UniProtKB/TrEMBL annotation:
Gene3D superfamilies noted in UniProt: Tetratricopeptide repeat domain (1.25.40.10)
Signal peptide: 1-22
Protein name, as recorded: Tetratricopeptide repeat protein
Statement: the UniProt record of this protein carries the keyword Signal: yes
Pfam families: TPR_16
TPR repeats mapped onto the chain: 73-106
Source organism, top-level taxon: Bacteria
Length: 493
């Protein structure tokens, strides 16, 4: 619901694997000699085809490699990557498991398992798998870079720094060395150094999403709001369903004085029930600056209310893939019967796709079938469990009056992703409803330290917690901070 601004908390895992230019040599090969040359060439050719988007060609090459050596774990790692790229997420998991069966100590297979666990279960659960991959092959640059990123997402910055230094020793020219150092510099309040390191990485010029996001955050920190808006516009076009990027883009538009464009782009989205309070506040500010207090008023009321958190299911946005746009168009029109039927048809056509499992769950949830939705969400969560998916699953459990399951799932997500302000706020709200004000206040303080202090709902809850705990001075302080977020009314003409 909220995009964190300072200190930054990036999803460092965005496309870090594959940023290096070579495939790590597994420890078995180092001990027993190089693989059979023709087989190795096939794997390299398949990698090149995948990198170029030629998935059918990659599949043909891997079929040929499988005929030569069906029990090579590198083969099954490649098959898992291909299946994942092709949207066959559940069968990709099966291929990764086959690679581990054939090579329990095979570093690339352990790394792939670590990445899958991170997506499905969170950062903390993935750490043992990254450590196992590094034990199998301490010189595996991909494993070390992803391990460092995961430590950073857990807030373990000193451990992250040690891992980055190890990466610099084994792969000094790897662009991720400079990128990860740039992240640490920005988190440490050194944007000039962060910019220099990011430029040295070359990842922004290559269009790596995580680098584009970091570049925008540095620009905002330095007051280069127009530059930040430009980068975020590029990123939002590539990731139209990424609500955090869209919220940050809206902020950059407002800060750069482009109120008209802000209102044009985001007014319809801000009016939806599932829109974040932060986005509603930004658009309201845009209307205020344009002198339109009539349109600003309801958005401000929503932004400063602390009602029930309604998750987005099938909101329509430009730039989405055709099947997604089709489903969301039906949902926006209120035709949930057709949306559910269309989603089931896609699910039957692509049974191994986690994306279509989630879309099917969204359609079921929107049509009032929370139990069916939870079954679909469970399939999708085998592959990845981002906060929007957890949020919808929690909502489905609450619709079924199963608060225990909802609270357990929410707490598990916070434990796995402890720097996500949105998840922390959701858990704090749950604790507040139960009267556990001390625990709620501790969580909210942590969220504010992560950069959530711009959210009016969060500040209102923190002020209420202070009052419930008999801390009147603290309550007044948070009330003042919340009031400062509200744009001042325009003077009467």
């Amino acid at each position: 619901m909220i995009f964190r601004l300072r200190p930054i908390a990036l999803l460092l895992a965005l496309a870090l694997a594959g940023c290096s230019d070579s495939r790590s040599t597994p420890p078995e090969q180092a001990a027993s000699g190089a693989p059979e040359p023709a087989f190795a060439r096939l794997l390299d050719d398949a990698d090149a085809a995948m990198a170029g988007g030629r998935l059918a060609e990659a599949g043909r090459i891997l079929d040929e490699a499988r005929a030569r050596d069906p029990d090579d774990p590198d083969l099954w790692v490649a098959i898992a990557r291909l299946r994942f790229r092709g949207g066959e997420h559940l069968t990709a998991i099966a291929a990764a498991e086959r690679a581990l069966e054939l090579g329990p100590d095979h570093a690339p297979a352990l790394l792939m398992r670590a990445l899958m666990v991170r997506d499905a279960h969170g950062f903390a659960d993935a750490l043992p798998w990254f450590e196992a991959a590094l034990t199998a092959d301490p010189s595996n640059a991909d494993a070390l870079a992803e391990y460092a990123a995961t430590l950073g997402d857990l807030g373990r910055h000193r451990d992250m720094l040690r891992a980055v230094r190890e990466l610099a020793e084994i792969a000094p020219r790897d662009p991720r060395v400079f990128y990860l150092q740039a992240v640490l510099a920005q988190r440490g309040g050194k944007p000039v150094l962060a910019r220099s390191l990011l430029e040295r990485s070359g990842m922004t010029a290559r269009g790596v999403p995580a680098a584009l996001l970091l570049d925008a955050l540095i620009s905002l920190d330095q007051g280069n709001d127009a530059s930040a808006a430009q980068q975020l516009e590029r990123l939002a076009a590539r990731q139209p369903a990424n609500t955090r990027v869209r919220d940050l883009f809206a902020r950059a538009l407002l800060l750069s004085g482009r109120e008209g464009e802000l209102v044009e782009r985001f007014s319809a989205e801000a009016a939806r029930p599932e829109a974040s309070a932060y986005l509603a506040m930004l658009v309201a500010r845009g209307y205020e600056r344009l002198g339109d207090r009539v349109r600003a008023a309801p958005l401000l009321e929503r932004a400063y209310a602390s009602g029930e958190d309604v998750p987005a299911t099938l909101a329509l946005r430009p730039g989405l893939p055709q099947p997604v746009a089709e489903l969301r168009g039906l949902a926006v029109a209120g035709n949930w019967v057709a949306a559910r039927g269309t989603a089931q048809a896609y699910r039957a056509r692509f049974p191994a796709s986690a994306d279509f499992a989630q879309l099917s769950g969204d359609a079921a949830l929107g049509s009032g079938q929370p139990e069916v939705a939870l079954a679909d969400y469970a399939s999708a969560a085998r592959v990845r469990r981002p906060w929007p998916l957890t949020r919808k699953a929690v909502h489905a459990y609450r619709l079924m009056d199963d608060d225990v399951a909802a609270d357990t799932l929410l707490a598990r997500h916070v434990a796995g992703e402890p720097q996500n302000v949105a998840t922390i706020l959701a858990l704090a709200q749950t604790l507040a409803r139960r009267g556990e004000w001390q625990r709620s206040a501790m969580l909210l303080d942590h969220a504010i330290a992560m950069g959530g202090g711009h959210d009016p709902v969060l500040l209102a809850l923190r002020a209420q917690a202070a009052r419930e705990l008999g801390q009147s001075d603290e309550a007044a302080r948070f009330d003042i901070l919340r009031a400062e977020l509200r744009p001042p009314p325009l003077a009467k003409r």
